[in-house]
Design a protein that fits this description.
Distance between the termini of chain B: 23 Å
Number of helices of chain A: 16
CATH class of chain A: Mainly Alpha
Helix content of chain B: 25-40%
CATH architecture of chain A: Up-down Bundle
Order of helices and strands of chain A: HHHHHHHHHHHHHHHH
CATH architecture of the largest domain in chain B: 2-Layer Sandwich
Radius of gyration of chain B: 28 Å
Strand content of chain B: 15-25%
Oligomer: heterodimer
Largest interface: A-B, 58 and 68 residues
Helix content of chain A: 55-70%
Low-confidence stretches of chain B: 1-7, 26-42, 57-70
Largest sheet of chain A: none
Strand order of the largest sheet of chain B: 6-5-17-16-15-7-8
Number of strands of chain A: 0
Structural class of chain A: mainly alpha
Mean pLDDT of chain A: 86
Shape of chain A: globular
CATH class of the largest domain in chain B: Alpha Beta
Radius of gyration of chain A: 23 Å
Number of domains of chain A: 1
Strand content of chain A: under 5%
Largest sheet of chain B: 7 strands, mixed
Mean pLDDT of chain B: 86
Shape of chain B: globular
Structural class of chain B: alpha/beta
CATH topology of the largest domain in chain B: Alpha-Beta Plaits
C-alpha cells in the first residue's frame, strides 16, 4: 500500500516469517474458510451458542418481568448493565485504533491483526449497544431516544449525555462497519476467485466486482485512507462521550473532568487485551504463528503497558484531585472506594489494571505467550471492575447517608453478562468460519515481494 | 464541616459505632449473608400476584358498588359534577377517641380522609392511622357475608335465629347472656346498651381493648374515687414531663396533642420561647426523640422514679397529697441532678406544667401523677378531668371474670361486638378454650379473624365510612358518622346490630333511624335542619360538658399508696408496646401501614425485640438474631434489633403482629406478642424466659439497609456531613447566634454558566419544613401515599431498597449511644430550580414548569433511571416491577382518579401535588380571582399535625411560606451544589434546662 515512506527500523526482524509467498498466504488463510473447520471450532461454537441462549433467556425474562429482576435499588439505579455497556464499548476500541490510527502512522505490524481487531470491534460494539437498549424500564418505547419528527414537536433532550452516547456509539459502529467491509473487499474477491457455484455468487455479490485493477486499487486506497481519517477521531470521541455519562453527573466519584482521557486510555487498554486474548487462541488453533508472530504480541503488550500506566496515573490523579479539591463528598467517594465496603472491587481493579501491565517492561515476559494470555485476561477482568467501581460505588454512597445502600447482583445480572460473551463469541466464531481472519491483501504488502525495488527497507518489514 | 456549635458527633446506627472485629470480617465477605439470601425469593410476589388475580374476581362478585344507581345518570344528581370531588364531613371512632374528618368523595367513591378543621379532635390534621383507614374500607379480605357455622347465611337468618334465642333470655332476664364489646364511644351505642341492660338486667356486659387507657382511668379513680377522663392541654404547658407516655404518637388523641405540643414549641425568631420536654422511658419513642432531656429507665422503675420525683418536689417545698405514706425508694439509683432540675422546673412553672404518664404504667403511678399534677395546680389549667360515668370503657378485670364464667359454663350465649379476643386476650385467660363452653357465639367483625373462626354466627361489620353512627369525646363533643358509600360487602354497623338484638323482632332496623332516635334528644326543636347542620359541620358542640376537675381523695390515695406498690425489681423485663404501624393489630392487613417504616427503627413489615446495645452484648446476640421469649409454655420468636437509647436489661416488643387470620397482607408478619401477655403483666413482665435460637431473620429497613455502614471511615464521613444536613442548635445558642444556620453555608460563590430561567411570573411553588416541629410521625408519608396512588411493594422489595415512598422520613442519632438525641428530616423531591435530574434525562421526561415544579411526564419516561442516579437527594422512586397491576379491583377503588397510576419501568417522585395545584388554579379561575395563599394545600402539609410542612407561593411576599423562608433558621439542603431547591428546611432547636449539662442524660 504505502510506498513513499521509508521504514527506518533496519534491524527489525521480518513481520511475516516462514518464507511466505503471495500464494502461500492466500492458500493458508483462504483455506480456513473453505474446508470443514477443526474440531475445536465446533466445541467453541457449541459453547458460545449455549451461552448466547442464556443471554436470550435472560433478556426474555427481563422483558417479561421488568428490570426488578436485577439487583438494582433506589440509590443504585445503574448496575451491571451499564458496567457491561462501558466494558464492551471499551473493548471495541482496539479495532479502530489498529485499523485507523496505526494505519495513519504506518505501523505495518498492524496488518496481521487488523481484520481480527476490527471484527472484534464490531461484535463488541454490538454487545455494548445491547445493554443500554435492554436496561431501560420500558424497552418498547426505546424509540423515544431517536430524534423522530412527530406531531407533538417532542424531541429528545439534547443536553443529556445518554443521547450523545447513542449518537457517538451509533456513529462509531457505522464507520467501523464501513471500514471493516471496505478492507474486506479485496479478500472477498480472492475467496470468490477460488470458489465455485453458489458460494462464488454470494462472495461475488459482496465483493462488488473487485478485479484488482490498478484504478480499483487507487480508489480503494484513497477510500481506505479517508475512512481511516474519519475513524481516527472517533477512537477518541466515543469513550470520551461515554465518560460524559458520568462526568456530567453531579454524583461524587462521577463528577470529574479527567474522565474523557482516562476512559479512552482504559478503552484502548482493554481493547488490546481482548485482541491479544483472541489472537493467542486463534493463532494456536489455526496455526497462524507465522502471521501473528510473537513480535506482534510483544508490540501489543507495549501498547498495553503505555495505556495501563495512563490508567494507573488517572487513578492516582483522581485521588489527588479529590483531596486537593477540599470537597468532603468528593474525598469520601474515593477513600470509600479504596477502603469502604467495595474495597474488594477496587483492589481487584488496581491489581489487574496497574500492577499486571507493569510486568510488560520485561522483554522476556513480553515474549512469553502463556504469560501474555493470562495477563490479557486479567486486564479485562480489571477493566470490568473499573467500570463497576465507578458506576456502583459512587451511587451506593452519595450525598445523604440515609439513602446509602449496597448493590448485590442477582443471578440475572450474572447470566446477562455471561450471556453477552455468548453473543460476542458466536459472532466471532462465525466470522472466523466464513471470512478471512487475516487481511490477506494487506499482509502481502509487507512481504519482501511486495517491494521489489527495496524502497521499503529491503522488504524486511 | 465539623459542627463547632456544640462539638457533638452524629452517627446513624449502632453498627457504625460498634466496630467489632466480627463485623469487620463480615464486611469483607463479597456478598454478606442476608444480601443474597432472601427467603421465598420471588415466591411471595408470585403468591400475591396469583392471590390478587383470584381476589379481583372474588372482589367483583362481592363488590356491591352501586353501579346501577350511579353510572347511568339518566337523571343526573343535582350536586355531582363528574370529575369534581365532593367533600363530606363525618366522624371516625378509634377506641374511646374519635376523629372528626372530611372525606374526599369521587362520584360516590371515598378516596381520602383528612381532618375536619371544625372538629377539635383533629383541627384539620391527621395521623398515619387516620390516613390509612380509608384503605381498610377497601380491604378485600373483609368479612363478606354472614356465616352460620361456616356456611353462608343471610342477615335475616340471624335476625330470626336471634328472635328465637332471645325468648330464652326473656324469662331469665338475660341469665347466661354476655356481651363483649370493643371500646365504643357512640352515644347511640351507649343508649342501646342501656336498653339492652334494661331488657336483660342479668346479662353480663363487658368492654375490653388490648390497648386502652384503662390504667389511666383506674389511677384517676383511685385518687378521686370516681370515674374521670383526662383531657390534656399541651399548648398551655411550658414544662412537660412524660413518664413513659408517647403522647405524640401512640397514646390516645395524639393528633390534637401533637398539634398543641407544636404550638408551644413554634419559634418565629430568636426572641421566641418554646416549651421544654422531659421524657422518661425505656425505649426510644417519637416523643422521646422530641425530648430536650431524655432519661432512659426501665419500665418497671418508672413508678419508683415517680415516687422519687414526688419526694424531690416535696423537698423543694411542694406539698403533695398522699405522698407522706410512701416510703422513700432508693432514689440514689436515679440521677439526682436530673430529678432536682426537673422538679425545680416544674415548680417554677406551676399551672403551666404537665406531668403525664403512659397507659403502660400502673394505676398507682397514675394516681400518684394525678396527685403531682394536683399539687402543681395543673388541674384545670393544663389538664381537665371530665366525668366518665356513662363511658363504655374497657375493664380487664370484668373481662377476666367473664372468661372464667365462660369456662364454668355460666355463659350460654356470647355476643362479641368487634374485637379479636382469641388473638389478643391475655394468654392466661385461655379464651379460645373458654369459647368452647359457650353454646352460641355471635361475632360482629370486619374480618373473619382468629376469633370469628370459633363463632357460630359471624356478621360482617360495615366500615365506619359505610354506615350511620355517632361519636363523642371525653369533653362531650359529638358528631355523626354518615356513610360515604353503600356497604361494599353488605355489612351492618354496631348500632344496627345492637338495635336488632335489643328489639329481637327478626329484623334489622335502618342505622339512619337508630342514630336519629338518639339525636332527636340532642337536637330537640327543628330537628331536620339541626340534623342537616350537624351532618354538614361534622361536629356538634352544644353537648359539651364542663370539666369536673375533681378533688383529690386523700384517704383513698393513702390507703393505696401505703402498700408501697412501686418496688418492682425483676432482673430482666419485657415491655409490651403499641405498634406505631398496626396499633394493637387492627391495622395488620393494611399494606400502607405495614410498609410505613417504624419512626425510630425504620423497620417495615415486622416487629422486633428491641434492646440496648449492652443488653444485646450481654445476651450475645446481634441484629437479626432470632430470640425466643417464653412465658408459661407460650413462646414468641422475634428478631433482635438494637435500639440506641433503650434501657438496659429491658426488651421492648410491639403488639399487633403475628396475625394468622388478618388477611393476605398481615398474615404471618412478625411475631405475636400477645402469646406471652398475661392479665397481671399487660404492659411489662419480669417473668419471661429469653433464649437465643441461633437462627437469623430478614428485617426490611428503609435506612441502614444492610448494616454495612459501620466502617469507621463511613461513620466519620457521616459525622462530618450531618451537621450540614441537619442544622441544629439550642434555643440559647440560637439567641446568641441568630445566624447559626448560615455559618454552615459554603463560601464558594454559586454561579451558573448560563442565563438561568427567571421564575418571576405567576405563582412560584415552594415548601418549607420546620425541623423544630417535625416529630417524625409519618402522617405526611401515608397521606402522600393515599393522595398520589403510591404502591406498596412488599417486604422483599423494601429489603432490596425499592420502597416507593415519595415522602421519606430520615432519622439520625447524635451524641452518646446510650442516651442519643434523635432528629428526623422529612425528605421529598426538593424541586431544584437547577435540577440535576432534568439535565440528564435523554427523552425529556422530567422537566421544569414555569411555576417552579420539577415535573414527571410518565408517558414519556422510558426508565433509564439516569435522573434518579443524578439526584443528590435520592428522592426519585423507580417502578422496578408493575407494582399496581395485580391490585385487587376493590383496592383500585381507593386510588385518586386525579393522579396517574404508574406502570412498570417508570420513574416517579413528589409532584408537589400538582393535581391539587391545578384544582386550585381552576377554582380560582372559575371564580374570577387570583390564587390566594391557602388555596392550594399539599397532601403532606394538610395532614401534618404540627404544621411543620408549609407549602405555597413563594412569589407572594405575604404568603405563609414566604414568611417562613425569610426566617433566619431557613436553609437549603446541600445548597452548596447549587441545585437551588424549592424545598428548604428550618433548623432544629432544643431547649435544654440550663441546670442540666446537655450531655448529661440528654
Amino acid at each position: 500500500m504505502s510506498n513513499t515512506i521509508k521504514n527506518s527500523h533496519i534491524s527489525d526482524p521480518p513481520l511475516i516469517i516462514g518464507n511466505q509467498t503471495f500464494k502461500s498466504i492466500t492458500d493458508s488463510i483462504s483455506r480456513i474458510t473453505e474446508i470443514k473447520p477443526p474440531k475445536e471450532w465446533y466445541i467453541f461454537f457449541g459453547l458460545a451458542v449455549s451461552v448466547l441462549l442464556i443471554l436470550l433467556g435472560s433478556i426474555g425474562y427481563l422483558f417479561w418481568e421488568g428490570v426488578g429482576i436485577w439487583g438494582l435499588n433506589n440509590p443504585v439505579g445503574w448496575g451491571w448493565a451499564i458496567v457491561n455497556f462501558v466494558f464492551w464499548v471499551g473493548i471495541g476500541h482496539a479495532g479502530t485504533l489498529i485499523s485507523a490510527i496505526l494505519f495513519l502512522f504506518r505501523q505495518k505490524w498492524r496488518t496481521s491483526i487488523n481484520r481480527f481487531a476490527e471484527s472484534m470491534t464490531l461484535f463488541a460494539v454490538i454487545c455494548a449497544l445491547l445493554f443500554p437498549a435492554i436496561h431501560v424500564g420500558r424497552v418498547w418505547l426505546i424509540y423515544y431516544f431517536f430524534p423522530v419528527p412527530n406531531q407533538m414537536g417532542m424531541w429528545p433532550n439534547f443536553r443529556s449525555p445518554l443521547l450523545w452516547d447513542f449518537f457517538a456509539v451509533g456513529t462509531y459502529f457505522t464507520v467501523s462497519l464501513l471500514f471493516w467491509y471496505t478492507g474486506l473487499i479485496p479478500d472477498l474477491a480472492t475467496l470468490r476467485d477460488r470458489a465455485k457455484g453458489l458460494r462464488k455468487k454470494v462472495l461475488g455479490f459482496f465483493a462488488i466486482g473487485w478485479r484488482g485493477g490498478n484504478r480499483q486499487w487507487q480508489h480503494y486506497e484513497l477510500a481506505y485512507l479517508v475512512l481511516a481519517g474519519l475513524s481516527a477521531p472517533l477512537v477518541l470521541s466515543v469513550h470520551s462521550v461515554v465518560s460524559s455519562d458520568f462526568a456530567t453527573g453531579i454524583i461524587p466519584g462521577w463528577h470529574s473532568t479527567i474522565f474523557p482521557p482516562y476512559f479512552v486510555a482504559g478503552a484502548i487498554f482493554s481493547g488490546f487485551a481482548m485482541v491479544m486474548t483472541l489472537a493467542i487462541v486463534a493463532r494456536k488453533v489455526y496455526n497462524l504463528e507465522h502471521f501473528i508472530t510473537v513480535k506482534h504480541l510483544s508490540l501489543m503488550a507495549k501498547v498495553m503497558l503505555l495505556t495501563g500506566s495512563m490508567v494507573g496515573y488517572s487513578y492516582a490523579m483522581e485521588f489527588f484531585i479529590a483531596w486537593y479539591s477540599g470537597n468532603g463528598f468528593e474525598s469520601f467517594a474515593f477513600i470509600n472506594r479504596a477502603l469502604g465496603n467495595y474495597a474488594w472491587a477496587y483492589w481487584i481493579m488496581v491489581s489487574c489494571n496497574v500492577i499486571v501491565p507493569q510486568f510488560f517492561w520485561s522483554k522476556r515476559l513480553r515474549n512469553n505467550v502463556a504469560f501474555l494470555f493470562v495477563a490479557s485476561i486479567l486486564v479485562n477482568v480489571g477493566m470490568w471492575f473499573e467500570r463497576f467501581v465507578i458506576v456502583v460505588t459512587s451511587l451506593a454512597r452519595d450525598y445523604l447517608p440515609s439513602s446509602w445502600d449496597y448493590f448485590s447482583p442477582t443471578i440475572w445480572d450474572i447470566m446477562t453478562f455471561i450471556g453477552s460473551f455468548g453473543l460476542f463469541f458466536t459472532l466471532f466464531l462465525l466470522f472466523i468460519r466464513f471470512l478471512p481472519m487475516i487481511a490477506m491483501a494487506e499482509v502481502k504488502t509487507v512481504l519482501p515481494e511486495a517491494d521489489p525495488h527495496h524502497q521499503d527497507n529491503g522488504g524486511k518489514s | 464541616m465539623k459542627n463547632d456549635m456544640n462539638g457533638k458527633t452524629y452517627w446513624r446506627s449502632l453498627e457504625q459505632i460498634d466496630n467489632s472485629p466480627e463485623f469487620q470480617k463480615y464486611l469483607q465477605h463479597e456478598f454478606p449473608d442476608g444480601t443474597m439470601d432472601i427467603p421465598d425469593g420471588m415466591s411471595r410476589r408470585k403468591f400475591l400476584t396469583l392471590m390478587g388475580a383470584s381476589f379481583a374476581l372474588a372482589g367483583l362478585a362481592g363488590c356491591r358498588r352501586p353501579v346501577e344507581k350511579i353510572i347511568p345518570y339518566v337523571v343526573a344528581p343535582e350536586e355531582i359534577i363528574p370529575g369534581i370531588p365532593k367533600y363530606y364531613s363525618t366522624n371516625l371512632s378509634f377506641g374511646l377517641d374519635s376523629y372528626g374528618i372530611v372525606v374526599e368523595n369521587h362520584e360516590g367513591r371515598p378516596t381520602k380522609l383528612e381532618g375536619n378543621p371544625k372538629h377539635p379532635t383533629t383541627l384539620g390534621k391527621s395521623n398515619a392511622w387516620l390516613q390509612a383507614s380509608i384503605l381498610d374500607m377497601y380491604d378485600p379480605d373483609r368479612a363478606q357475608s354472614v356465616l352460620h357455622n361456616n356456611n353462608e347465611a343471610k342477615l335475616d337468618d340471624f335476625a330470626l335465629a336471634w328472635k328465637e334465642l332471645s325468648t330464652e333470655f326473656a324469662d331469665s332476664k338475660g341469665d347466661g347472656l354476655a356481651v363483649l364489646t370493643e371500646a365504643v364511644n357512640s352515644p347511640t351505642f351507649i343508649r342501646l346498651k342501656q336498653d339492652f341492660l334494661a331488657k336483660f338486667p342479668n346479662a353480663n356486659w363487658v368492654t375490653w381493648e388490648p390497648v386502652s387507657d384503662e390504667t389511666i382511668y383506674d389511677g384517676i379513680s383511685l385518687a378521686t374515687g370516681n370515674e374521670y377522663r383526662p383531657v390534656y392541654h399541651y399548648d398551655k404547658a411550658n414544662v412537660i414531663l412524660s413518664l413513659d407516655s408517647d403522647f405524640l404518637n401512640t397514646e390516645s388523641n395524639a393528633i390534637r396533642h401533637t398539634g398543641d405540643f407544636a404550638n408551644g414549641r413554634r419559634v418565629v425568631d430568636e426572641n421566641d420561647s418554646m416549651n421544654r420536654l422531659y421524657v422518661v422511658e425505656n425505649s426510644l419513642s417519637v416523643t422521646g426523640g422530641m425530648a430536650d432531656h431524655r432519661y432512659r429507665l426501665r419500665h418497671q422503675n418508672i413508678g419508683a422514679f415517680t415516687v422519687a420525683l414526688a419526694f424531690e418536689l416535696k423537698a423543694q417545698g411542694l406539698s403533695i397529697p398522699g405522698v407522706s405514706v410512701l416510703s422513700k425508694y432508693k432514689s440514689h439509683s436515679f440521677n439526682s441532678t436530673w430529678l432536682k432540675a426537673v422538679a425545680k422546673d416544674l415548680i417554677q412553672n406551676k399551672k403551666q406544667s404537665l406531668v403525664v404518664a403512659g397507659r403502660g404504667q400502673s394505676t398507682n403511678v397514675h394516681a400518684l401523677v394525678f396527685s403531682i399534677n394536683y399539687a402543681l395546680k395543673n388541674r384545670g389549667a393544663t389538664i381537665d378531668y371530665y366525668s366518665a360515668d356513662d363511658t363504655n370503657r374497657p375493664q380487664t378485670d370484668a373481662f377476666k371474670k367473664i372468661a372464667t364464667s365462660m369456662k364454668d359454663g355460666d355463659v350460654s350465649t356470647l355476643i362479641m361486638f368487634g374485637g379479636n379476643p382469641v388473638y389478643n386476650a391475655p394468654a392466661d385467660f385461655g379464651f379460645s378454650e373458654a369459647l368452647k363452653y359457650v353454646n352460641h357465639t355471635i361475632h360482629i367483625s370486619s374480618h373473619l379473624n382468629e376469633t370469628s373462626k370459633f363463632a357460630e354466627w359471624t356478621l360482617p361489620l360495615a366500615h365506619a365510612l359505610e354506615s350511620w353512627g355517632d361519636t363523642k369525646t371525653a369533653d362531650g363533643i359529638s358528631g355523626i358518622t354518615q356513610p360515604q358509600i353503600q356497604p361494599l360487602f353488605g355489612g351492618i354497623s354496631f348500632v344496627e346490630c345492637l338495635a336488632a338484638i335489643v328489639k329481637a323482632d327478626g329484623k334489622f332496623p335502618a342505622g339512619y333511624d337508630v342514630v336519629q332516635t338518639t339525636w332527636k334528644t340532642f337536637l330537640g326543636e327543628n330537628f331536620t335542619s339541626a340534623w342537616r347542620k350537624v351532618l354538614h359541620d361534622g361536629v356538634f358542640t352544644k353537648n359539651i360538658i364542663k370539666p369536673a376537675n375533681p378533688f383529690l381523695s386523700h384517704a383513698k390515695l393513702k390507703s393505696v399508696l401505703k402498700n408501697n406498690p412501686f418496688s418492682a425489681d425483676a432482673d430482666f423485663e419485657v415491655v409490651f408496646k403499641t405498634s406505631p404501624s398496626v396499633f394493637d393489630g387492627r391495622f395488620a392487613n393494611n399494606g400502607w401501614l405495614q410498609e410505613t417504616p417504624d419512626p425510630i427503627t425504620k423497620i417495615t413489615w415486622d416487629n422486633a425485640a428491641l434492646m440496648s446495645h449492652s443488653t444485646a452484648k450481654e445476651m450475645g446476640v446481634k441484629n437479626r438474631d432470632i430470640i425466643s421469649l417464653t412465658q408459661n409454655g407460650n413462646t414468641v420468636e422475634l428478631p433482635v434489633w438494637i435500639m440506641p437509647g433503650h434501657a438496659d436489661k429491658s426488651i421492648s416488643i410491639e403488639l399487633g403482629y403475628g396475625r394468622t387470620a388478618s388477611g393476605r397482607i398481615g398474615n404471618g408478619v412478625g411475631g405475636n406478642a400477645y402469646a406471652i401477655r398475661n392479665t397481671n403483666t399487660l404492659w411489662a413482665s419480669g417473668n419471661i424466659t429469653i433464649s437465643p435460637t441461633g437462627r437469623t431473620a430478614v428485617l426490611a429497613t428503609t435506612q441502614d439497609h444492610h448494616g454495612l455502614d459501620i466502617e469507621k471511615l463511613a461513620a466519620d464521613a457521616i459525622q462530618d456531613r450531618l451537621p450540614e444536613i441537619i442544622r441544629e442548635a439550642t434555643l440559647d445558642e440560637y439567641k446568641h447566634h441568630p445566624d447559626f444556620v448560615q455559618e454552615h453555608d459554603s463560601s464558594v460563590p454559586l454561579v451558573s454558566m448560563w442565563d438561568e430561567f427567571q421564575y418571576d411570573k405567576g405563582p412560584q411553588w415552594g415548601m418549607a419544613i420546620d425541623l423544630n416541629l417535625c416529630t417524625g410521625c409519618n402522617a405526611c408519608s401515608v397521606s402522600c401515599q393515599g393522595e398520589n396512588n403510591i404502591p406498596i411493594v412488599g417486604k422483599e422489595q423494601v429489603e432490596k431498597g425499592r420502597e416507593m415512598s415519595w415522602m421519606r422520613m430520615d432519622r439520625y442519632y447524635s451524641g452518646d449511644m446510650d442516651n442519643p438525641e434523635m432528629v428526623v428530616q422529612p425528605l421529598n423531591c426538593q424541586h431544584c430550580e437547577m435540577a440535576p435530574c432534568e439535565q440528564v434525562c435523554p427523552v425529556a421526561a422530567t422537566t421544569h414548569s414555569e411555576d417552579g415544579i420539577n415535573g414527571m411526564t410518565y408517558n414519556r419516561c422510558v426508565g433509564t433511571r439516569y435522573c434518579a442516579n443524578n439526584c443528590p437527594y435520592k428522592v426519585r422512586r423507580f417502578n422496578y416491577y408493575n407494582f399496581t397491576k395485580d391490585l385487587p379491583e376493590i383496592v383500585q377503588m381507593v386510588q385518586n382518579p386525579d393522579v396517574t397510576v404508574r406502570f412498570r419501568g417508570v420513574m416517579e417522585k413528589c409532584t408537589f401535588c400538582v393535581q391539587r395545584i391545578n384544582q386550585g388554579k381552576i377554582e380560582a379561575k372559575n371564580e374570577g380571582r387570583d390564587l390566594q395563599d391557602g388555596d392550594v394545600i399539599s397532601a403532606c402539609q394538610q395532614s401534618c399535625p404540627t404544621d411543620a410542612i408549609v407549602f405555597g407561593d413563594i412569589s407572594n411576599p405575604e404568603s405563609q411560606i414566604s414568611k417562613l423562608k425569610k426566617q433566619n433558621r431557613n436553609y437549603a439542603l446541600l445548597g452548596e451544589i447549587n441545585t437551588q431547591p424549592r424545598v428548604t428546611y428550618l433548623a432544629k432547636l432544643r431547649n435544654p434546662n440550663p441546670d442540666l449539662h446537655r450531655s448529661e442524660l440528654s
